[in-house]
Design a protein that fits this description.
Heat Shock Protein 90; 2 domains; alpha+beta; five-stranded mixed β-sheet; 7 strands; about 65% helix
Length: about 375
């Protein structure tokens, strides 16, 4: 299983810190070593620093190119050479006082190993390099000299251990952050899926409300009488209902002309005023046509309107559509909660595509205004 984004970022930062630590420590240490060299230590110091400089350049290349981690052993070998060279690169009077320009450089180098190497490999390299530092210090100490340098070498290993502990805690925090982000993403996905399911359920309920439920209501309430003409009306209505239900769930075209869709969906008795060509996203066109269709059905079924008009205007800011009727008005605020026609089939449909609806109704006549911003 791959690491998360936070841990991968930590790995990247660990390599970057390592590179900066190496460059930032080698330059001053080389200057101090060169200035502190005596006639007896000048040539060994120059040779050792040249070797370490070459290995450091190779080390930085390994970090930059992200080569295999075992190549870092080449740099660790150069550090071992540096540690064992204490006898020839550090003046005896420095050692007697516990001074050494090798210890800080080796300390920071082994600390940096912990920032980008595995626990086992980083620990092995740190132990091997510090063992060489202890051997080199003991070998170079003058007789009867204090063991300050030896104590510094041992403390250097302790610093590497603390660096490993710190980096382990930091990486654990990164994994916890990745887990938290993954959990948050799962929750967002679950909520998005649930919202889509609710949207699909609402769309299906609206489709049933506008088709089969409406037709059954007309029949059950006696609004469609008997006779060949009534049977023709009912047959035509049922056929339209089936067409709507069969088309439910299909993806609409990417672009649809609103005027053409209205001309097909609305009864011929509805006066439609629509400019030539109002291309809209297919999903928006379908929602607008269905919402206008429900407003027309309400005007016919509930308001008993004699005249229904649909006027569409379009501009750079979007489009406006108004459905007007001369039927019996109503109070939009007092529509019972179980009634879905206005709340879901009109307002809900437009809200789902980013549109808005305003309803004005008096004693006589109702205007339903639909707006969708481009």
């Amino acid at each position: 299983m791959g690491e998360g984004a936070a841990v991968q970022r930590l790995y990247h930062l660990g390599r970057a810190y390592t590179a900066w630590i190496r460059v930032g420590t080698f330059v001053p240490i080389a200057v101090i070593g060169g200035l502190g060299a005596t006639a007896a230590t000048a040539w060994p110091t120059a040779a050792v620093l040249t070797t370490v400089a070459a290995s450091s350049a190779f080390y930085l290349l390994v970090l930059r190119r992200r080569w295999r981690a075992h190549l870092v052993a080449v740099d660790a070998a150069a550090l071992v050479v540096l540690a064992l060279s204490t006898r020839w690169t550090i003046p005896p009077d420095w050692l007697a006082e516990g001074k050494s320009w090798l210890v800080p450089f080796i300390t920071f180098a082994c600390v940096a190993y912990q920032y980008h190497l595995g626990r086992m490999f980083g620990a092995v390299l740190a132990v091997v390099v510090h063992a060489a530092l202890v051997v080199g210090t003991v070998w170079a100490l003058p007789e009867q000299a204090p063991v300050f340098g030896l104590v510094s070498a041992c403390w250097s290993l302790v610093v590497s251990v603390l660096a490993r502990i710190l980096w382990t805690l930091v990486r654990r925090g990164g994994r916890m952050a990745d887990d938290a982000m993954a959990a948050a993403e799962r929750i967002r996905t679950e909520r998005r899926v649930a919202a889509e399911l609710r949207s699909d359920e609402r769309a299906l309920t609206n489709a049933l409300h506008d088709t089969a439920a409406t037709t059954l209501l007309l029949v059950g309430s006696g609004q469609i009488g008997r006779g060949s003409e009534a049977e023709a009306i009912l047959s035509n209505q049922a056929r339209q209902d089936l067409d709507v239900l069969r088309a439910f769930g299909r993806q609409p075209p990417e672009r649809m002309d609103l005027c053409s869709a209205l001309a097909t969906a609305l009864p011929a008795s509805v006066a439609v005023s629509c400019p030539a060509g109002v291309p809209l996203p297919g999903r928006v066109t379908r929602a607008v046509v269905d919402a206008i269709g429900e407003a027309v059905r309400n005007a016919t079924r509930h308001a008993h309107a004699d005249r229904i008009e649909v006027e569409v205007t379009s501009g750079p800011g979007g489009f406006h559509a108004v459905v007007r009727d001369d039927g019996v008005g109503f109070d939009p605020e007092r529509v019972p909660a179980p009634k879905r026609g206005v709340r879901e089939s009109i307002v809900g449909r437009m809200a789902a595509v980013g549109g808005a609806v305003a309803i004005e109704s008096g004693t006589t006549g109702t205007s339903v205004r639909l707006r969708w911003p481009a």
